[in-house]
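Weekly structure sync, notes
Attendees: PL (lead), two postdocs, one rotation student
Agenda item 3: pending single-chain targets
PL asked that the sequence for the first pending target be pasted directly into the notes so everyone works from the same version. It is reproduced below exactly as submitted, 104 residues in total.
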Amino acid sequence: MPVNGAWAKPMFSSEVGTIGTTWTFTKQQSFSPPANLLAYPVLQYISESDDETQTIAYVSKFVDDGTSHSGKFVGVAATKCSSIEWSLYCDHSFNNPLRTIFFF
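Predicted structure, written out during the meeting:
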């Protein structure tokens, strides 16, 4: 199947994170009309704010052909994707991963 396009952009407008605590940051992305795609976050680095840190970039929800899927997904492969919820878990860390999408 040929790739019809590719797109990548930082998940947030600037680096997000936490000092001394944990938090999950989310970003919603919609597609109209729904798209045939492969999408995944790319974590480029981890910026620590303490000695023990953790950062996880993942897809926490997506809608394909009207059906919503929730969980902790490495990425999304969908034929009629109308939305993706990108998530970044930060435990004493800062980051701004890329949202990477290939359209088919």
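Discussion points:
- Residues 5-103 form a domain with the Jelly Rolls fold (CATH 2.60.120).
- The first strand starts at residue 5 and ends at 10.
Action: rotation student to compare against the earlier draft before next sync.
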